[in-house]
Write a structure and sequence with these properties.
single chain; alpha/beta; Alpha-Beta Plaits; eight-stranded mixed beta barrel; 23 helices; elongated
Length: 606
Amino acid sequence: MDFFIMTETFFLTVLQPILSEVTLYNDRLFTSGFIFQCLLLLVIVLLVNRYNRKLLTEQRKFNKQERYFRPLYELNTVAIIMTDPTGVIIDLNRASEKLAEMNRNEILGLHFNHFLPEHEQEATKQRFERVLAGEVVEYEVQIYNSAGEMIDVFIRNIPITVEDKIHGIYGMINDITEQKRNLEKIQFMAYHAPITNLPNKRKLSEDVAEMLAKRIPFSLIYLDLNEFKKTNDRYGHLAGDFVLTTVANRLREKDDQGVAYHIGGDEFAITLPEVQFEAIEKIATAIADEIRLPITYQEFVLEVFASIGIARFPFDAESIEELLRKADLAMYASKEHGGSELVFYHETLLQKVEERFKLEQDLKEALEKHEFEMYFQPQFEIQTGRLRGAEALLRWNHPEKGILSPDVFIHVLEETGLIVDVGEWVITEALGLICSWTEAGYDFGKISVNISAKHFEKQSLYHFIQEVNEGDAACLERLDIEITESALFNMEKSIDSVYQLKKLGISISLDDFGTGYSSLSVLHQLPIDYLKIDRSFIQNFNTDSKILIQMIIQMSNNLNVKVVAEGIETNEQLTFLINEGCTYGQGYYFSTPLPKAEFEEKWLKK
């Protein structure tokens, strides 16, 4: 700026005197030309000087603005780069260095493709061309840092326009790697079971819906682990979780081009791209065999078996709901068969389901309508033939089918939980009869009542019996509670429950003895009064069963536990039991189960 001021001063102070001197020579032509040139030069100098002043003012303004905005660029947490129209990086901020894990000098002059994996380059090139055409483009893409790690980023590309001409591109880059990973975790959790990490029921529904829409034939295999609740009860939930994860790993290994799912609880499913019976049966059998392999948990060896049902698309169903329901029906049919066979869905299953549903509905109304009855099978001292008491047995007086034995409906009571309500009704009825027979002066010994595992597990059983009996100790002393080994998986809890009941004066019988693997330990730990030999040992009256009966009676006598034999039907059986020292017995040899009135008339009013 000083240069132009000096120039103006020079012409005003030096040129003007010279012009005056020249005029003295009176050379008109020379003087006129010279003056014109000097004036023209002066005008040019003045104009240049004014323009430069304006330019300097704008430059100062620009520099001032740049000082204001430069920190916004340099210190921005968002990575910002500038490229020329060819894609070469010509400027960047500090956040870009941090993102790339490189310094400024290493990055300048590199093409943006340097940071892109090969599969991203073509799509990014097309976006770059759109920006050069004047668009603002936003997109997600993966890039590499200097360590070769893949980073997920969100980029906003803005054209750099000066006087309607694009001179380059701004790239504003946000690192969204953590957000993407968190989103992936959320999506994984939404579509996978937490314990096994297998796809869950929601994922199964979506996958099945997609195959149905594409009309892809496939089979749906449903699996349910048998007796899984007992594993949880006996060994704890950590053992149960270990079983689930082990089964899940085995299913991953044996799904044969299909996909394994954890539906929930102890239920699993597999979709198979196969619809031929023989091929499906071969795969499903291999899966069942794999699941059946022993599972070692701590010092325990656990055995797991699966009930398996199979439905096929498009042969069995056309909708996802129908296919899932029919595979489930087939699985429950397998469970009713003991879980020992594969069951393919067939139409007769629907009829069975309808019958089962009707049975459930009728059972729910049976208590309210007083359709249950008590029958009594006498028990005797087999050495003397004297009446020892009776076992109270449940019967259902169905309005259409007549008298039904528990074999028809007891499993439904267990599965629906109605067994607890019915069990409480049985106890109430039995105690009422015990008290009334006692008041009548009948000599009948003890009345035995069966308690289900679910009922025995309830902590309120002790208090319920107290309330029902209303403090009459004499009646409670004539009550005998029969429990099975299946009710004793939680031994510590079982011992407490047994001692509580014995405090009331109630005696305890262990029913179906000899059918469980823990019989000896149960007999040793629990204060049992009576042991009932399972009827299967009496019915299969051969050499092996006789040896087992002898061992049970001898062991019980050593532990001062009385033995009751069930299912006596022949004189040979009775004679053998008498000779071996069995104390009590019951069965058709003595009497069938009798209605209350008939039992009273035949055995109590003598």
